[in-house]
Design goal:
heterodimer, A: mainly alpha, two-stranded antiparallel sheet, 4 helices, 2 strands, 68% helix, B: mainly alpha, Sodium/glucose cotransporter, 19 helices, 76% helix, globular
């Protein structure tokens, strides 16, 4: 893979992470259930959404922390070089 | 209320454990300021996660939050999830990781020190410290008031307010003064685990007494049909979003939380904490706030000025267990206050005393001044807590304490700009922070609208901080000694 392709792959993965974070923020409150009072297994349905969403966020954050985008986002190399 | 001997035994036992931890930590502490304030940047995942978490909790988790869920419904759980589980986690990365890198490279201990060095500006350093202390002092005072009142309630008045608050204050000065951040972080970890344990025990106890979770929820929806449906009443989308955004951004600049960004031992600690954040939010806030909402269906009567959770526990659990949960609430308040004391003291000594009064002070002298600062800070907030409520001028402090999160949120956007945009200038920072804080204070104290176009004024002030920082930075030039490379961003 040449430099051009490496940069393009990085840019694409960075853009995907930004989109994923935006999605996590936007649906932390399940707006599409607004006014819904369905109770499932003893708890409101929207509360189950919250449980699932927090678990999903945790998995997504762990995946982000493992990948290379973690250091690129904050220019870590530049700071280390001083 | 609970048997007096049992209640006092639980509280005194708890305080003694905290003190023992403080003494153990003291034996590991060397005498430099960096060790005193940051435990020499050596904090691992479990301790960092719990010390940040316990620091965030305050009395709200056990008292204010369940009260809100009792009166308005359990949707606050979603606000907490968005606020602390998602938004704060992202700020933990965007601000926290970058601050950690920069702090490690240049040895920063406080936010004001970091920004002051980057922009070569003692004025900015002093402004950030001054603004932070303005909001911190009354907030610590409110925690002391809460702790004093919790003790009054727990002992049915046998311990008067002044004695309870004085006891807590002396204990905090003792272990914070002795051991610094290491002792605070260790006690926070104990407190966090303790709170998490008692809240789930409380859920198990009440669910088994009331016939299970389904019965509790059914009782809640019978008594308050609107509680199960998402939204309604207090909960509008604008209100929920504004609360989550303002508090999440406020938390990131709260001195005791922001300073924790400098403490991690290595990058893996920050990565693990980042990923575990939503899980911890789930584990603590769902049970605490559900208990508040379920209490509606159990027919619990809450007199004015009382808290729902202690009343619920007294009716459904044994006296010793209710005392244990109150001790948990006390732990929450102390774990917030001790960290705030330490951070407040560091902001004062490093960003005001050292640059403005004694530039040549040695590291050991600064560590010593920091300890004196903790004692003076705690004693002053305690004295203020005795004097407020009498209708005197000090009632201003209560208003300031209640609006502190919004006050800190005005620092966060200029901070993000400084960290990521090389074009930010000293005057841009000063203009952004000063104008947003002035506008926010005006809305807190003057009869101005609470919302514009249905959105909370604190959000508009944050927008002002963004616009003012960018606008002033664009029209002013960087001073020769400003150094954007320190933050890894080249000047434009």
């Amino acid at each position: 893979m040449n430099d051009y392709h490496r940069v393009m792959t990085r840019t694409r993965s960075d853009a995907l992470w930004i989109a994923a974070f935006a999605l996590l923020v936007a649906f932390a409150v399940p707006w599409f259930l607004w006014g819904d009072a369905t109770v499932v297994a003893g708890l409101p349905l929207w509360l189950w959404w919250h449980v699932g969403w927090m678990a999903l966020a945790s998995v997504a954050f762990a995946a982000f922390a493992r990948g290379g985008a973690w250091d690129r986002g904050v220019d870590a190399e530049v700071i280390r070089r001083g | 209320m609970a048997d007096l001997g049992v209640s006092l035994g639980v509280v005194v036992g708890y305080l003694l454990v905290a003190l023992v931890i403080g003494v153990l930590a003291y034996r590991l502490t060397d005498r430099t300021a960096e060790d005193y304030y940051l435990a020499s940047r050596s904090v691992g995942t479990v301790v960092l996660l719990f010390t940040t978490f316990a620091t965030l909790l305050s009395a709200f988790t056990f008292f204010g939050g369940p009260n809100l869920a009792f009166s308005a419904g359990p949707e606050w759980i979603l606000v907490m999830g968005l606020m602390d589980g998602i938004l704060f986690a992202l700020l933990w990365y965007a601000i926290g990781y970058k601050q950690w890198l920069v702090g490690r490279a240049h040895g920063y201990v406080t936010l004001g020190e970091m920004l002051g060095d980057r922009f070569d500006s003692t004025a900015l350093r002093g402004l950030v410290a001054g603004v932070s202390l303005l909001w911190l002092f009354p907030y610590v005072m409110l925690q002391q008031i809460g702790a004093g009142q919790a003790l009054v309630g727990l002992t049915d008045g046998a311990v008067p307010y002044w004695a309870g608050a004085a006891l807590i204050t002396v204990f905090m000065i003792a272990y914070v003064g002795l051991s610094g951040l290491r002792g605070v972080a260790w006690t926070d970890t104990l407190q966090g685990v303790f709170m998490l344990g008692v809240i789930w025990l409380a859920v198990a106890w009440i669910a088994s007494a009331a016939g299970g979770i389904s019965a509790l929820t059914a009782g809640m929806t019978d008594a308050a049909p609107e509680f199960a449906s998402l939204g309604g009443g207090l909960y509008s989308p604008q209100w929920m979003i504004a609360q989550a955004v303002v508090i999440a951004f406020g938390v990131a600049a709260f001195p005791q939380v922001n300073q924790r960004f400098f403490m991690a031992d290595r990058v893996e600690t920050l990565k693990r904490s980042f990923a575990l954040w939503p899980v911890l939010v789930l584990l603590l806030f769902v049970p605490a706030f559900l208990l508040g909402s379920w209490a509606v269906g159990l027919g619990v009567q809450v007199p004015d000025g009382s808290n729902v959770l202690p009343i619920l526990l007294n009716e459904y659990t044994p006296a010793w267990f209710a005392a244990l949960v109150i001790a948990g609430a006390l732990a929450a308040m102390m774990s917030s206050s001790d960290s705030m004391l330490l951070s407040g003291s560091s902001y004062f000594t490093r960003d005001l005393y050292r640059p403005l009064v004694a530039p040549d002070a040695s590291d050991e002298r600064e560590g010593w001044i920091g300890r004196v600062g903790v004692a003076v800070f705690a004693s002053s907030t305690f004295l203020a807590s005795l004097l407020v409520g009498g209708g005197g001028g000090l009632d201003v402090l209560v208003t300031l304490g209640d609006t502190a999160f919004g006050g800190y949120a005005q620092l966060t956007i200029p901070l993000i700009l400084a960290l990521y945009w090389g074009g930010t200038t000293e005057w841009g920072m000063i203009g952004g922070v000063a104008s947003a804080e002035a506008a926010y204070l005006a809305h807190v104290f003057l009869p101005l609208p609470a919302t514009y176009l249905t959105w909370d004024f604190a959000l508009w002030c944050m927008l002002l901080s963004l616009v003012a920082t960018v606008a002033v930075s664009t029209v002013t030039a960087s001073a020769p000694a400003e150094n954007a490379e320190k933050f890894g961003v080249g000047a434009d």
